[in-house]
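User: I need a structural model of Cryptochrome DASH from Alteromonas gilva for a docking pre-check later this week. Nothing fancy, just the predicted structure tokens so I can convert them on my end. Input:
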Amino acid sequence: MKNTQSTGLSTGLYWFRHDLRLDDQPALARLAACTDRVILVYCIDPHWFIPDAFGCSRMGIHRQQFIYESLIDLNRQLEGYHQNLLVVVGEPVSQLMTLIQQYDVTVLGFGEHPGFEERDQIDKIKQHIPDLTTISAHNNSLFEPEVLPFSISEMPDKFSPFRKKIEKHLNPLKSIARPVAIPPPPAELIQTDWQGLPLHHGSASSFNGGETAGRKQLHHYFFESQGIADYKSTRNGLEGWHYSSKFSAWLASGCLSVKYVVSELHKFEKQVTANESTYWLYFELLWREFFWWLQRKHGRDWFTYGGLQHSSTAAPKAGDALHNWQNGTTANAHINACMRQLNATGYMSNRGRQWVASYLINELRQDWRYGAAYFEQQLIDYDVGANWGNWQYLAGVGSDPRGLRQFNIARQAAMYDPQDSFRKLWAG
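Assistant: Understood. Predicted structure tokens for Cryptochrome DASH:
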């Protein structure tokens, strides 16, 4: 392989992870401005498809298809810059170090992520290549840690004090425009084998991956249907496309910048209306932000049975009840409907997620982590912070120390499915 340093041209590498877009990419813009050639990379880790200790893979078919569509969309946009996306398969740290050495990369760019594994990957690369210059940015959060009214190690473990301090002191950062130009890749750079990628393309999901689709959905929900104006009254729906924003899948994969979402929300409030519903969407984005930073604070405890409360109770062993829950064959018809919807589409309403989590923990007496791991496998909008944080919260070992949160499913069904239409739709 040609030694690119001999040409006198500097080479940078940007590692796309949970930020599959070109909008609001400050680290990419800075990398493009200080290097002569740029390699743009996404890594597919084979371990995503291998069952873990909970018997679940890290990524099921629904999110696989969404990611594949997002990569295709990103590559299509990059063609306008005379660039292309290199998608490699293998253990990410090894793949990145091979590319860095092979193409004499001197600058690595990436989006910061508070996840335990994501931070560990960056640390390993820095340890192995100490002379490597890194450029990073907080491109998937509303705020940077430096501006928060507390240090991450001292942030509140409860949402309410977190929210109140944020709302009192901070306004969300504005997103930045996409790069004006990106230098070309090295001429000898290998090309992506798109047909050979180990991603499934046969999901029945209604979601289309990619920044283009995410922006289209945002514009539709805010400015065409103006569904946001009634969000607070519709958000507890169980079935359909219009009862909620559906932004979660694009936010989780970084196809939409959360800063861009909030900036468009403020535009709607100025141009159309500001009401309880528009505030409530921002309120829920603050929940996302809360879990985003809380996982950074607690590290490995995010995944332990005792959670943030360090409960010493022994974890129950998985049994047939777990498999019945996963397959939607429990004794509760509404739980079954929710789980069948999840398995078929990769999506479940927020109300349904609370029902099935409560049922698994309180009625079936199962280890909550098996539920969190199954959601990680099945959900198209899986986000490590929100998923594991919400499961801990409902299990009584997370951010709220008041104990288990148990739902009366029959009463809930009477409130939110009074005509029994949702249950009948997914009766099987």
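Before docking, keep this in mind: Residues 218 and 270 are 16 Å apart (CA to CA).
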